[in-house]
UniProtKB/TrEMBL annotation:
This is Translation initiation factor IF-2. Residues 89-258 form the Tr-type G domain. It comes from the Bacteria. Keywords: Coiled coil, GTP-binding, Initiation factor, Nucleotide-binding, Protein biosynthesis. PROSITE patterns: G_TR_2. The gene is infB. One of the essential components for the initiation of protein synthesis. Protects formylmethionyl-tRNA from spontaneous hydrolysis and promotes its binding to the 30S ribosomal subunits. Also involved in the hydrolysis of GTP during the formation of the 70S ribosomal complex. Belongs to the TRAFAC class translation factor GTPase superfamily. Classic translation factor GTPase family. IF-2 subfamily.
Amino acid sequence: MAETQEKIIQIAGSITVDELAEALGLSVTALIGELFKQGIMATINQRLDFDTASLIIDELKLENVRLERKNTATKTSNFHRELSEKAVLRPPVVAVMGHVDHGKTTLLDSLLHKKTVEGEAGGITQHISAYQLKHDERLITFLDTPGHEAFAAIRQHGAMLTDIVVIVVAADDGVKPQTIEAIKFAQGANAKIIVAINKIDREGADIPRTMADLAQHGLQPEEWGGDVTMVPISAKRGDNLDKLLDMILLTADIEELKADVEIPAEGLVIESHMEIGKGSVVNLLVTGGELKTGEFVVAGSVYGKIRTMMDFRGKPKGKAAPSTPVTVTGFKELPNFGDRFIEVKDEKTARKQALLNAQAEASETASANVTSSDLLRMMNTADNSKVFNVIIKGDVLGSVTSVVDSLKMIDTKGEISLNIVSSGVGDVTENDVYMAEGDNTVIYGFNVNIPTNIVKLAARDGVEIRNYRVIYELLDDAKQSMEQLLDDEVVEEETGEMKIKGVFRTERTAIIAGGEVLTGRVNAGMFGRVYHEKELIGEVEVDSVQKEKMQVNELVAGETGGIAFKLEKRLVIEIGDRVKFFTRELRKKKL
Ligand code: GDP
């Protein structure tokens, strides 16, 4: 029955089981059976992505079949990336990152107050995701982000928007895990790094030690001949903030950051939420062109006409140049955090482009139905059905996306799967509680309210609601909760080795022998592996230890003594054999 001609199957994003079976000339049941063998419970309409389909074809050993990717319209097809000759200088976009409590918020607040609030809009109370300030008559754009994971999410969405990362390190605490994460992020995003060594007003502040610490992590201070600018500051007292801003501008000058303005406006969605009376309120960062009110824009599958536009202080703005953060209304629905937006010429084009993007997204989501990594995971953990279910509620779409994306990035090492039952913007509702009934399900709130009646309902139904304001804490909680669900693992640790010098008594389930401890130690309760020459001949357990005919706790290297071994199986130990001792315990698995 071997076909000689190569068969080519084109896949645009994903293919249904039904379509694949037909293309392969197999019956649907045969294909579903094959998928089942691979640990995938598939239905006839289930979509498989390209890699999964390839794996299945490999498994079926169909050598004369070849899969080809068929290109579909991509979301980014319209975006300008290359700069023209006419590109002009633009303000740098700066993100402030660092370990928790090292002073990011204080720094952002101090800069904001120093440069804007004092002079102008007295009280910015609302959380703002981006702002601009003027230093030496030049603008600098600062991004405030809910956490590093938010950046990871933006990066996942395929955008690089930070030119400079200011890494805040407390001079009395040094480099910490999130400092390292920030360094890695900045390097991964190809951003320039400036270090702000903070809290220099504190008694325990040690600038040279902090620099040495940073140097150990690959950031060589300029003072020491390296290429990383480090500015000692006190975010709280305001010391050296001007110097920090000088350094940011200097770095921007060296980088010659530019953008085209004579192109349709484009940029990124950095936050979005609904407001009563206004509809969608969306924060955008313009990265190219000039955005004006009245223009039509598309962001992913959502489009709109810019109805109102404001700067970060809430002042109306008619036009926004590159690197400017603005708040706009007019999108018909909420665009996603991290999505690119682009200006188009009219409503018809906007609608059409949004629809095309929606279709591309749908085939992406559909293909995400069963991906090859799911498949690999299922193959590896066929007998492991542990699942941790979560429901996510967040204050704004940006935080929900960050939480969801970050949760998905937790490496569960195939030990457990994390299932996001649902996610959305808003307070925790009755419906969320009903959905959470069942094993291993937790509702996570991020910056939301949990009304008292919901707290009561959840308590009655035994549903866990956990509310967080800091993303790392939420992620830590999820990780720990998953660890709790894992089985214990057996951990063995070698403790020492003995050479047998005499065998006193051999019974069916016990042997009493004497010998010299060569390395380490041995005591009752330990296990041992017995080697004759180099061959492993059996396993024993240490029942008791004797030294000079007295029972003792342990024998250590260099000592000679007697041991009563317990046997599981009959075993003959001879003079000259060696016993390698080890402890064996059950430990909670870690992720
Ligand atoms: P974040 O978690 O990095 O945003 O840190 P915060 O900005 O919330 O700061 C954590 C704590 O350190 C707060 O109590 C701040 O008041 C304090 N702090 C921040 N910067 C300084 C500083 O320059 N000097 C001193 N003494 N305390 C600071």
